[in-house]
């Protein structure tokens, strides 16, 4: 297994919002390279604990190996599971009370550069794209071989916002009868052929959007995020904080809408003399606008450029 590295984005901003204190317990719902988890373990020493989850078994194994000889290894529970199951995992391990939960929805450097799963279009790799390679979920290659033109068009348009979604999907269906589409280079060649010649110099933009769309579909990323948010807020006690870092507009929109709904009280028409809906806010939004990385962080880590941090506190 190659080295699993990931520079935690907006780390200081996340720590400022979570405000960890000695003895607190936190959940890192997306362990990745372990940057948030290690910082939380340090801030909550000597007795604070972290329950860390990840869908990628390589992330779990690499993290355990890296901290096995450290004192903090006794204060962390690393679990291989989907963050959408956070309530189940917390209950299973009788973990808590939970002072806060953090989730970084982005990809790690390992997954992009070293995992060999075809997540990046910049390398010639098999089209797998699964975060959890131990499971039975369909790979990207399977989707490209079996899904119809309409379904592929929907994936590319809805998850990638790709302008040429229909043309690309049509060419995939036409080409797959002659040649199997199993590697990243197979797919990029079809994408390039689907773009008008005058725009082909910008083909990499379409590569990025289509690869993003396929990855989201393979891992059911948006559906899992929609399941995670209410589960995470539900297991927090009053005063507990939920912080989420997203990297593209589809994710950020889901988080923003959930937070607004959670923080909304009475929804009766304004001309009603008294409230009859009985609705009260369940949370307080801590980030009126999303927190973004400053120039110094972006200069050191270009992937921080698109990061957005939103947070709420349960009432």
SSE pattern: HEHEHEHEHHHHHHHEHEHE
Average of pLDDT:
93
CATH architecture of the largest domain: 3-Layer(aba) Sandwich
Q: Counting H and I runs of at least 4 residues, what is the number of helices?
A: 13
- Please tell me how large the radius of gyration is: 21 Å
Through-space gap between termini: 43 Å
Main sheet properties? 7 strands, mixed
Low-confidence stretches: none
Shape: globular
Structural domains: how many: 2
Nutshell version of this structure?
42% of the residues lie in helices and 11% in strands.
Structure explained in plain terms:
- This protein has 315 residues and is α/β, with parallel strands linked by helices.
- It has two domains: 11-111 and 221-314, Vaccinia Virus protein VP39 (Rossmann fold), CATH 3.40.50.150; 138-218, Orthogonal Bundle (DNA polymerase, domain 1).
- Helix content is 42%, strand content 11%.
- The chain is built from 13 helices and seven strands.
- It has helices spanning 11-18, 35-43, 57-67, 86-92, 109-113, 140-146, 149-160, 165-176, 184-194, 203-218, 221-235, 249-262, 295-300, and strands at residues 25-28, 49-54, 76-80, 100-104, 241-246, 283-285, 308-314.
- Strands 3-2-1-4-5-7-6 form a seven-stranded mixed sheet, sandwiched between helices.
- Helix 7 (149-160) packs across helix 10, helix 9 (184-194) packs across helix 10 (203-218) and helix 11 runs parallel beside helix 12 (249-262).
- It is globular, with a radius of gyration of 21 Å.
- The termini are far apart.
